[in-house]
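Trying the structure run again after the queue cleared.
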Amino acid sequence: MVRFDYIDKLGYYCTESSEHNSEYNCFYIKPGYPELIEKFNIPLDEYPRRCENQIARWAKQKEELMNGGDIEHSRTHEYASHIMEAVVTNKPLKIGGNVLNNGLIDNLPSDACVEVPCLVDGHGVNPCHVGRLPVQCAAMNMTNINAQLLTIEAAVTCKKEHIYQAAMLDPHTGAQLSIDDIVKMCDELYEAHENAGYPIF
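Done. Tokens:
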């Protein structure tokens, strides 16, 4: 339903699932509008449920293997082995790849990661120039690219303030919390990481 709402409001189809899409925009999961969850059929527990099922499958597989079970494998539609085959054998493969923009999408930053059509062959992954996105689509992308670039800046410079700024500019976070609440949340996350013995940078 979120995908259909995107078509209605923005004029273009978004390939992300409704649940995943609604996680990183500011429109559909809002404390003041609980009716939106039902209206747009957003399965808030879908990803945790999938993780729990995967962990259970791993535990079962471990038990089977420890009791002398055999490992079987069949090739799936996932890209990794197909990409390796294309590079090694020079057999061309078309994929949608996540690459550094470098002017592939004209109206997004060059240092953003973008998903574009790519041709994979013996020369590696060769992304295709897309041109300009419709202004509203580029704007939607920028709401998240801004936060992502600030997060990268924090990792590169080790400056804590960039993490606060990334959280402040995240569209979903900014739609739910005040700046003071965002700063408090970041402080709590820092403290939790330090108490757990994880390095911040």
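The chain has nine helices and three strands. Worth checking whether this holds up in the mutant runs.
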